[in-house]
Amino acid sequence: MNQLAKGSCLCKKVRFEIKLPTKWVAHCHCSMCRKFHGAGYVTWVGVENKNIRFTKGADLITWYHSSKEAQRGSCSMCGSNFLFQSQQWPDEMHITLANFDTELDKKPQANAYFSTHVDWMPIDDEIKKIWK
Ligand SMILES: [Zn+2]
Ligand SMILES: [Zn+2]
Question: Does the predicted TM-score (pTM) go above 0.85?
Answer without folding.
Answer: yes
